[in-house]
Specification:
The protein is an alpha/beta fold. It is 38% helix and 11% strand. The chain is built from 9 helices and 8 strands. It has an 8-stranded parallel beta sheet. Strand 3, helix 4 and strand 4 form a beta-alpha-beta unit. Helix 2 runs parallel beside helix 9. The relative contact order is 0.18. The mean pLDDT is 94.
């Protein structure tokens, strides 16, 4: 394996997983190491409930992600979510639909078909995904959750050519199934602004991925029951140390499934989970630097 590892080094990639867990010196543009993200907030009602509950805790977050798809939101709902993001200075990320789960194909609903992730089947689905982005961008949304590498590539080309706003950001979903430095480098090269690896990625894998890319890594600190239900709060300090800049995706254990229809009560429970992760950071890595409120670039 020696020659293979040397070749990977020559092309700027780690030779293997970083079992020595080196400290990452990379940072967000504001100099911070980590930010908080709450996923699975599907509409303006739960978004408002979450943000108001965080205010009661005296806490702020940096990003909220909707996962069911733009096509499931009315124009007024998109506008209201954009307005809430501006009011609370939180980046709103809307999921691009239709995804594979909305397609007429039954494959993704089978045990074997699930291995394809949420990738798109046919060029018409690419066209529809682009239309979702254009619609939300017209109402002021500038961040999007992407499930397909081909769609990411074409959206990046559109962004460069002015077909969509140049300040649009693209976040790669964990449902793409990526978990190694080479895949992360590829995604960064075709326009990803942050990448969410597989949910059970280990620390040495995160550390090697960080060596390969500069964009933020989005990591689940906990998960819905449908994707394992595991809670990794005590690993968070090391996640930050070895893979900053990092978005800590928190609150998922409240849901039973990925696209759980989060109620106002569920949103408040997600807010509590953020405070629990923050406590662990303050106890075991008090020097870790969090972005201030409003840092969403």
């Amino acid at each position: 394996m020696k020659d293979t590892r040397l070749f990977l080094n020559r092309i700027g990639l780690p030779s293997g997983d970083a079992y020595d867990l080196p400290t990452s010196e990379k940072r967000f543009s504001d100099g911070a190491q980590y930010r908080f993200e709450v996923p699975g907030i599907q509409g303006p009602g739960s978004m408002k409930a979450l943000l108001e509950e965080l205010d009661k805790y005296g806490m702020s977050i940096h990003r909220i992600t909707q996962t069911k798809g733009i096509m499931m939101l009315t124009d007024d709902e998109i506008k209201e979510m954009v307005d809430l993001g501006e009011k609370w200075q939180v980046q709103l990320v809307l999921a691009i639909g239709p995804r594979a789960t909305n397609d007429t194909s039954a494959s993704v609903h089978t045990e074997e078909g699930q291995r394809m992730g949420y990738r798109l089947r046919g060029q018409e689905q690419i066209v529809r995904g682009i239309e979702d982005v254009k619609r939300a961008a017209a109402f002021g949304c500038r961040a999007f959750l992407v499930y397909d590498e081909g769609l990411l590539w074409v959206l990046n080309e559109m962004r460069k050519l002015g077909e969509i706003p140049s300040d649009c950001k693209f976040k790669i979903s964990a449902h793409c199934g990526h978990g190694n430095p080479c895949s992360a480098r590829l995604l960064e090269s075709i326009g990803a602004n942050s990448v969410n690896p597989v949910r059970d990625i280990q620390l040495q894998m995160l550390a090697s991925m960080r060596q390969a890319i500069d964009i933020p890594i989005d990591v689940h600190t906990e998960n819905p029951a449908s994707s394992g239900g595991f809670i990794r709060h005590y690993e968070v300090p090391e996640m930050i140390r070895v893979s900053s800049p990092i978005y800590l995706k928190t609150g998922g254990s409240v849901a039973k499934t990925h696209s759980w229809e989060t109620s106002d009560a569920d949103a408040k429970k997600r807010a509590k989970q953020v405070t629990l992760v923050k406590r662990v950071i303050e106890s075991y890595y008090p020097d870790a630097v969090c972005s201030k409120k409003g840092s969403i670039s």
